[in-house]
Amino acid sequence: MERKQAKLFLRCSLVLFIFGCAGKSIKPVTPGSAKTPIVIKELEIQKPQNTSSEESTIPGKSSDAVDPKSGIVSPPQTVVLPKFGFIFVGGGAKSWAHIGVLKEMQKLKWPVRAVGGFEWGAVVAAAYAQNLSANEVEWELSKLKDFERWDIFIKAAFAKKMTADLKVPFVCSSLNIAKQTIYFLNRGQLDQLLPFCLSSPGLIKPINQSVAFMMDVPGLAQHMRATGVTKVILINVLTQKTKRSFIKEYDESDNIHWVQAAASLVKKPIGVDDVIEINLDDFGIKDLDKRRDIVAKGSELSYNQLKKLAEKYGL
After folding, report:
1. What letter would DSSP give residue 288?
2. pTM for the complete prediction?
3. Residue from 172, 198, 192, 158 nearest 86 by CA
4. Quick check: 201 and 207 in contact, CB under 8 A?
5. From the CA atom positions of the chain, what is the Rg in Å?
6. Are 271 and 233 spatial neighbours (Cβ–Cβ below 8 Å)?
7. What span, in angstroms and rounded, lies between the C-alpha atoms of 159 and 151?
């Protein structure tokens, strides 16, 4: 009997203990505890607000883009600039104005992908393609003392210099009179290549039946685009405000050639995106003794035009 009472007592005690524990409160485990799983909700990212009235921008970079729905900020996107190709029109001594243009381009840090030219504009282009320095071009071309000694100058300035070693691609245009064919020369040794693109009426006689041909700007522009150029800019030093002779003998065939070349450039040629006009009415194609003034004029007249184009293309 006593054993039965003892067993009954133990059972009752156990029941009371269990119900007593169920009535007590248990402290919650704080988030982040290793014993409790953490549920992460989507974070709501707010749009950044400007803290100043002026916003700084980095050239070639766009500001951070924010998705209006999610509010997620994407990294800045790189602005891809055009690949510029420059064509330098010939003009005898007038071609020295290209040096002034190059000086202004250098100040504005124009990126140059390729260069090409006609007549003495081709010489400027080739000299620039060697090291992309306007000052070096000016120094090199200052060594020419007389157009009649052009061959000595070309050999001294470009001897054993190959087009493959140039900083940027170069091309010049030549017309072979015998074959009646236009050639775009861009490979080989510069002192052997340039003479075919240099001859012009009133200055240098045809070389191996080849002369400079300035009336096929579209062809030269197309050739430059094949090298990767996306924007072609023509620098025209034959622009005239007052119609006058390029050489003293107005009605001679030599002058007619120059008039035709200038007339072909009055309207923007096909394949050219922009034209920089350099009016040199006060100078003739033989005025090599005035080269310093011509360089200065090129710099003066190109400044505003280049600045506007730089703004247009986001430079």
Report:
1. G
2. 0.75
3. 172
4. no
5. 38
6. no
7. 11
Tokens standing for 163? 């087009």
Do the Cβ atoms of 215 and 182 come closer than 8 Å? no
Strand partners, 279: 239
Which tokens hold the place of 297?
């004029």
Tokens of 286: 């033989």
107, containing H or E segment: helix 97-107
Contacts for 311 with CB less than 8 Å, ≥ 6 apart: none
26 C-beta neighbours (distance < 10 Å), count: 5
Tell me if 126 sits within 8 A of 158, measured CB to CB: yes
Indicate the DSSP class of residue 275.
E
CB 120 within 8 Å of CB 280: no
The pLDDT tens digits along the chain (315 residues) read: 444 444 444 454 444 443 444 444 333 333 333 333 323 233 322 333 333 333 333 344 444 555 566 666 666 566 678 999 999 999 999 999 999 999 999 999 999 999 999 999 999 999 999 999 999 999 999 999 999 999 999 999 999 899 999 999 999 999 999 999 999 999 999 999 999 999 998 899 999 999 998 889 999 999 999 999 999 999 999 998 877 667 766 667 778 888 888 888 999 999 999 999 999 999 999 999 999 999 999 999 999 999 999 999 988
What's 80-106 look like in SS3? CCCCEEEEECCCHHHHHHHHHHHHHHH
The answer to whether residues 215 and 119 touch, using CB atoms and an 8 Å cutoff, is no
